[in-house]
Structure formats: structure tokens, C-alpha cells
Amino acid sequence: MRFCLGLTGSIGMGKSTTAAMFVEEGCALWDADAAVHRLYDKGAAVAPIAARFPDAVVDGIVDRAALKRIIADDSAALKQIETIVHPLVAQDRSRFRQSAQADILVFDIPLLFETGGDAAMDAVVCVTIPADLQRQRVLDRGTMSEAQFEQIRAKQMPNDEKCARSDYVIITDTLDHARRQVHDIVGQIRTGLAHA
Ligand SMILES: CC(C)(COP(=O)(O)OP(=O)(O)OC[C@H]1O[C@@H](n2cnc3c(N)ncnc32)[C@H](O)[C@@H]1O)[C@@H](O)C(=O)NCCC(=O)NCCS
Ligand SMILES: Nc1ncnc2c1ncn2[C@@H]1O[C@H](COP(=O)(O)OP(=O)(O)OP(=O)(O)O)[C@@H](O)[C@H]1O
């Protein structure tokens, strides 16, 4: 039996960093944000995005900076982008699910609960840190303005609710602490698989 583990958390809470720790433990990883990058880079999202937002496509690639400007100016744009992108992301995910070779498949999905994706998982992990640290980490990356960060955060399910709905919560305050929590969760799942 293969175990499907959803990994979620709000923007900047540490999903990608924690996902890499699951890979170190021998899990196979599918990353929703990485799938979006593939779809935007000469992938299947380019034509439908170009049809709706011609200024967002440059040399056959969806330009994320242009997309962020469009979203900042038009509050309905993100919803329209999601309508194009999410079904393509779902196709990419089911291809991975059919072909991946590991006992535990980890799905790093920022909008896991918001899109109802949790129903397809055997368990869900939520990563968390206090809101002030979250803001600091996102702004320190230098890829988003404070307004863009707030716009994305306001669209996501509140962190407390995500944690309450999850089977496991990982506190991403330090790398060592997160690594220990990942190791414990993988151990619990593998013990369960051995007895299944
Ligand atoms: C808004 C965009 C242009 C920002 O691009 P940028 O490279 O600056 O950021 P990146 O893609 O790494 O996203 C950063 C984080 O923002 C959050 N986020 C991204 N898209 C969304 C969204 N539609 N709703 C809520 N949060 C989102 C996630 O936590 C994500 O991890 C880009 O995220 C995008 O095109 N989003 C729409 C596609 C989508 O819904 N992606 C979510 C995963 S399926
Ligand atoms: N356990 C941790 N200890 C210390 N710093 C961490 C930890 N986890 C993540 N970070 C830092 O927090 C920042 C955000 O982490 P990461 O990019 O993994 O978050 P994310 O949830 O994937 O973000 P996004 O939602 O924007 O894709 C990064 O600068 C990362 O180095």
C-alpha cells in the first residue's frame, strides 16, 4: 500500500523546506507550485492565459511579474487564472500518483483545503509559525511587496483552521526541530504501513 500525505500551510510557512526533509526520508514528492512553473514555461497553461491576458505572456512563457501586476490591478484576475490553472495542475498530480515509486507520496499543495484536495489524502500535515515570523520570512525573500503578500494571505484559509483540520502539525521554527518532527511522522506512517 502507498500512503498519500498532503503537505500544506499558508504562504511562507515552510512547505518547500519541509517537503525537502520528507524527500531526505525517502518519500516521493509532488509540488503544486513546481507544477504551475512547468505549465507556465511553454506548458499547457500558456495558450489559455494568453487568450485571456495577452500581456502576461512573453516569448511563449507566462511572465509571473506581469501576472502579479494584473492581479494587483484587477481583483477578479486571480480567480480567472485559477480556473485555467487548477484543472491542469490536477492532471499533472494524477500522472504523478500513477507513476511514483515510494511507500509514502508527499503532495506539497498550498491550497489543499481550499480546493478540497484533502479528500484524496490518507493524512494531512500543516506547517506553521507565528504570523509575524511568516510575514518577515516572505518579505525577506524580496519577491513580493507587502500588499501582494496581504492579498494572497487574505485569500487563504486562516492558519488556525488549517492546523485544526490537519492530522499532524509541524512547527518550522528551526531546521533541526522541523527535521525531527518529519522523522517522527514518517516513522509513525511506516509503522502503520508495516501493520496494514
Ligand atoms: C500569483 C502568482 C503569479 C505569484 O507568483 P510568485 O512566483 O511570486 O509566487 P509563487 O507562485 O511561488 O507563490 C507563492 C505562494 O503564494 C501562494 N499562492 C499562489 N497562488 C495562490 C492562489 N491562487 N491563492 C492563494 N494563494 C496562492 C502559495 O502559498 C504559494 O506557495 C502565482 O502564484 C500564480 O500564478 N498563482 C495562480 C496559480 C495558483 O493558484 N497556484 C497555487 C498552487 S495550485
Ligand atoms: N524549519 C525552518 N527553520 C528555519 N527557517 C525555515 C524553516 N522552514 C522554512 N524556513 C524559511 O522560511 C522561508 C519560507 O520557507 P519556504 O519557502 O519553505 O515556505 P513555503 O511555505 O514553501 O512558501 P510559499 O508558500 O511562498 O511557497 C524560507 O526563507 C526558509 O528558509
From TrEMBL:
Gene3D superfamilies: P-loop containing nucleotide triphosphate hydrolases
Pathway where this protein functions: Cofactor biosynthesis; coenzyme A biosynthesis; CoA from (R)-pantothenate: step 5/5
Organism for this UniProt entry: Ruegeria spongiae
Enzyme Commission number(s) of this protein: 2.7.1.24
Top-level taxonomic group: Bacteria
Protein name as catalogued: Dephospho-CoA kinase
Keywords noted in UniProt: ATP-binding, Coenzyme A biosynthesis, Cytoplasm, Kinase, Nucleotide-binding, Transferase
Family the UniProt entry places it in: Belongs to the CoaE family.
Keyword Mitochondrion in record: no
Pfam family, one: CoaE
Any one GO molecular-function label of the UniProt entry: dephospho-CoA kinase activity
Main location: cytoplasm
InterPro entries according to UniProt: Depp_CoAkinase (IPR001977), P-loop_NTPase (IPR027417)
Positions of ATP binding: G12, M13, G14, K15, S16, T17
Name of encoding gene: coaE
Catalyses which reaction(s): 3'-dephospho-CoA + ATP = ADP + CoA + H(+)
Listed HAMAP family: Dephospho_CoA_kinase (MF_00376)
Subcellular locations according to the entry: Cytoplasm
Task of the protein: Catalyzes the phosphorylation of the 3'-hydroxyl group of dephosphocoenzyme A to form coenzyme A.
